[in-house]
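Write out this protein's structure.
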Amino acid sequence: MFIELNEIEARIIGCLIEKENATPDYYPLTLNALTNACNQKSNRFPVVDYDEDSVEQALESLQKRDIVYLFFGSGSRTKKYKHLLPKLLELDQAETAVICVLLLRGAQTLGELNQRTSRIYHFSGLDEVHQTVDALIKREEPLIIELPKQPGQKEARVMHLLSGEIDVENFVVDLPVSRSSNSQTESLKQELSELRAEFDTFKEEFAEFKKQFE
């Protein structure tokens, strides 16, 4: 199945995959929680600042193509959203993890993929990452492409093709500015972002519950 996503649609799908696996108790996501997930400052590149109207418009486009659908929990009128990407593209969990990180962070090395997919799928090592990436590259309709190694970079990177073909010869890998922070700090930032998203979801569900008695 051919799927092409614009920038905001790619971010939305990446967030839905991530939250489904990292915080399953709070999935599917409300519009507010999804917007917050898109605008997270940790584990995102580039960092964006989408408003809810923009996210909702992108969701409507994804719904029309049956990539995302609305979900209503029992007794709740709050709209929540689920994705169908792995089913549509016949992705296993390892492939889903790789695609998710590429959607959220852009081009990655195999080592970065090995490290950054751990909350969705635990790879046994770089060999398994390589096998998974290779399978996605060699599909009849490739979902990933290997980018040429660029000046100053020790390793080649791979990028998803869900936003259309890439002009490999002229593609420049845009990398986040290096910050003097360690992995523990990044982990704490991620946990804080997830707690905020969970709190926002709880507030929305509680407000919906209160309406029953008004």
